[in-house]
Design goal:
The structure is a homodimer of 451-residue chains. Chain A has 451 residues and is of the alpha/beta class. The first copy, chain A, has two domains: 22-85 and 248-449, Zn peptidases (Aminopeptidase, 3-Layer(aba) Sandwich), CATH 3.40.630; 88-243, Glucose Oxidase, domain 1 (3-Layer(bba) Sandwich). The first copy, chain A, has 14 helices and 16 strands. Chain A has helices at 2-32, 35-46, 54-69, 131-142, 160-165, 169-172, 174-179, 220-232, 284-304, 325-336, 363-370, 373-376, 413-416, 429-449; strands spanning 74-86, 92-98, 101-104, 107-109, 121-128, 146-149, 185-189, 215-218, 237-241, 245-259, 264-274, 310-317, 340-346, 354-360, 383-386, 402-408. An eight-stranded mixed beta sheet of chain A has the order 1-10-12-11-13-16-14-15, sandwiched between helices. Chain A has an eight-stranded mixed beta sheet with strand order 3-2-9-5-6-7-8-4. In chain A, strand 5 (121-128), helix 4 and strand 6 form a beta-alpha-beta unit. Chains A and B meet through helix 1 and helix 14 of A and helix 1 and helix 14 of B. Chains A, B: Its main location: endoplasmic reticulum. Chains A, B: Residues 254-437 form the Peptidase M28 domain. Chains A, B: It is found in: Endoplasmic reticulum; Golgi apparatus; Lysosome; Secreted.
Chain lengths: 451, 451
Amino acid sequence: MLAALLLLSAFATQAQNHEQNLRTIFDEALTKGQSYPMLEYLSLKIGHRLSGSPSAAAAVEYTRQQMESYGFDQVYLQEVMVPHWVRGQKEIGRIVNSKFGSQDVNVIALGNSVGTGPEGLLAEVIEVQSLEELEKLGKKNIEGKIVFFNRPMDPKHIHTGHAYGGAGDQRVKGPSEAAKYGAVGAINRSLTLAQNDTPHTGSLIYEEGVAQIPAVAISTVGADYLSRSIKANKAMKFYMETHCEMLPDVLSYNVIGELKGSELPNEYIVVGGHLDSWDVGDGSHDDGAGCVQAIEAVRIFKATGIRPKRTLRAVMFMNEENGLRGGNEYARVAKEKDEKHIAALESDSGGFTPRGFGIKSSEETLAKIQSWSSLLAPYDLRKIVKGYGGADINPLEDQGPALIGLMPDSQRYFDYHHTTDDTFDKVNKRELELGAASMAALIYLIDQEGL
Amino acid sequence: MLAALLLLSAFATQAQNHEQNLRTIFDEALTKGQSYPMLEYLSLKIGHRLSGSPSAAAAVEYTRQQMESYGFDQVYLQEVMVPHWVRGQKEIGRIVNSKFGSQDVNVIALGNSVGTGPEGLLAEVIEVQSLEELEKLGKKNIEGKIVFFNRPMDPKHIHTGHAYGGAGDQRVKGPSEAAKYGAVGAINRSLTLAQNDTPHTGSLIYEEGVAQIPAVAISTVGADYLSRSIKANKAMKFYMETHCEMLPDVLSYNVIGELKGSELPNEYIVVGGHLDSWDVGDGSHDDGAGCVQAIEAVRIFKATGIRPKRTLRAVMFMNEENGLRGGNEYARVAKEKDEKHIAALESDSGGFTPRGFGIKSSEETLAKIQSWSSLLAPYDLRKIVKGYGGADINPLEDQGPALIGLMPDSQRYFDYHHTTDDTFDKVNKRELELGAASMAALIYLIDQEGL
């Protein structure tokens, strides 16, 4: 009985200790936080940073120096060869010979797409709502045409990520699927719930052995206009001209900074984001925010003197957007070195107010993390649910760590995602800081309690 | 046993019914919602609408017509005399004779303040951090000077409303407290966590029998600069010139729209916001958002055919900002008519993503509302806590209804609050819609289940 009481009292003391440390973590982030000035540098001084670009190299060096400057125990680069896709000069999209006359519309080449070259591509357009529709239409209706994938994201989803997931196949797989039926090009309705004239890029994946056709995204307003134009005159044509191309792979790096664990230094907790961004806007939300939050989460331990038992690793993954080479390489090396990863936490859903965490793990691990709810609720982290960790940490799955995604409010993310509008002014300082503190808080609890 | 089983099955059916109706409510708001176009009209065609202004009258007429157009059972105006404060020509604030030279700084008169008139006011400045400090300094240090209240909002609060609450006494009571010690004017650090050069207005309340001194707010950047200037040269003076004045009261209105209850028409559920705004920006977040959400919440019932048992009332309260006359009059009339209000729900914290509800009620009522958590969680309404309802509904307190405040994410609210930056472009369509749907969802459950 006495033993039980002592144990109970030890638990209570421990919980109180956790409570105080979480408060310390949030206070540090909200009063002396470095995430916002770091993001300002990354976004405004370096700017967008597609894999293989000089600015991606600058981002590697900047984040390396920052982690050094904060006194992390070890900061190093992990080599990774990355694809080097370049957009070239600005795209042209033009509705030709429609009932409403000719009209230029805003388009943006999809990442990894081949270009049309200067001669451009002029063809009739056939609109579809799904990949399945292609089969029904068959070669006779599709051959020689541009396929226009126009299924919108479904606004009825509360979490916009689900709406994105429900429409994304058109962009990723659409061009190759269309090419199988003889299509000569693809136009994709931009993946956003916003109704405006800004097109959204993002990667396509060409299927091996299928003809590679050029593909562009059109804005939501443009998509509606194009759809009306086709209905009014089926003989209408579309002219697209893109100058993008895939160059040879380039040597780049994941950037890794560590705080050594005091008791279990060979157990690793990863906290990360991806350093590359699309080549428009400045990638502030996708995923500059995640990178600076990951660095900040580890910096907070150093600055507040909260000593981790296990080794904390901030990882800036390279090439999430069009290849995932960084995430794959990190996992490969971790396996090769037989490193024991107990958890990996990624922030790649924008720098908005955090609402909780999505967790991919065993039921027991999920339940254990959920058991910390009362410690996290004062910070309005109230959504701790089964979910997806993140693209860069997902390759670690077979090595067993809990894969966890920071879950910020999702409403504005796809307003900016992969566009010229993903810029620093769209990030609220406190929202960014709260995200960083939330990440630090969760890795603190994982470190202290184990998983 | 059979009876128990039947009862259990009736409960299950009812819960399923609720689940479906909540889904219907959110689908309506997210796919056919009217809150955003209503707010666009209110903000861009009518603009800011301080009590007593012609645009406040336009807002009364617009919201009346909108509720009529949606086929509410009854729409009517409730007379209320409101204060008529006018700002007059733009304020001047000037640091004079400082060590750094003279410098104009952005200031804005506090609402209800007397003006300096064209002759302006020139005096030395004494900086304080609290009302208590005034007593310590005493008349000998304060008399003839301008008191500069410079205690910042505390960034360590997670909910920014708490930070606002912790600093607001300086604005509301500061000028009269300072006047008791012979101060001739007051300058208030703007109530915001943002560090920029935009000053925030808001009302002061003059204490009866105390000399009324002119008061302005200075931006946070300006406040820091002024503080440094005083430290560098205590003999520095400040020149302020304001042209505001209080004119005679004006006849205005609360605007009320009803859907009649099918079973208990004499029980009322109020859903509201306040129609007046400060005379800068266009009052989109404070509180155009709340008004259009309240109308939308009731419209959703009408549009989806969900028939309420009790009478639902959308109320556009007039004069929250500088008098609360509308809220007081509404409560007075309700009491006079002996109307039974079971709940009142106000949205007056901005049109941001809803996170839950703050509830001022008995413990039993709070527990009952919390028992609906599993119905609300799919909409990410996960914070259902004891709290404050809202300024306009608070006067109903002694009549017994649950007073409930919609709780949107609070991080950006005080970036815009009471400034030229509170404009329509700061409102995200889906965030606004989700707030309206959340209000409809909660009044639906209250209507169906009672309180």
